[in-house]
Amino acid sequence: MSPPWRLQQMKIVQRPHFMLREEKKKISEELHKWKDDIYPYIFKADDDAFVNMYTLQKHLIQLDAAGYNKKFGLCALWLNMQVMRDDKWQVSTEEYPDEYYPPYCSGMTYLFSTDVAAKLYEASFFVRFFWVDDVYITGMLREKANVNFTSTGTVYCEPPEMADLFTERWHKCVFIHLFGNDTKSIIETWNRWSKMVEKTTILTPTEIVPGVFPDFYNSVDFVKN
What we know:
Elements: H1 20-33, E1 41-45, E2 49-51, H2 53-65, E3 73-78, E4 104-113, H3 114-123, H4 133-145, E5 149-151, E6 156-157, E7 175-177, H5 183-197
Parallel strand pairs: 3-5, 6-7
Antiparallel strand pairs: 1-4, 2-7, 3-4
């Protein structure tokens, strides 16, 4: 399957929070540039995330064909998350006085249409900068821009569930958090898995809406190794 759009990649280096202001400025400028039809979606992923591009791409193609290419975002939404005051991500009351963050996306992966990027960029002029980028971009700016994201938490998996990639459940895991950076193992897994899934027909869900992935695939077309 080839997507009906171009792919643009941007690398973002994780920095200490006191160095992030200039980095965020650069990111917001890039998002502002991308608010056209060339890039219908913007997808952010950490370097330790394994992404099932077959399922994700199929979902986006179906959404695009159904007219869902504006005003939406997909991610694992965190709700009622308490502000941490005494760990790696500790935040002072001066930086963020409230006890809880607004709903925001897990930073492992999130995706939104480019018109949302423009809205977030515009909102950044009215929301005080906050160095926890996931909270700032997908929580504070999203709320100011009055944009809703759809939670896709059911397709986020942990490493032990990667075994499902080699069964008829392979489509169930779309985003997997890998603890570590074993590049060789990741490439081997991807190559073996890709050869298998290319022989499988992906069915269309009964309802095409953001965040609703296929519940089953055509078992007749599934080929076991």
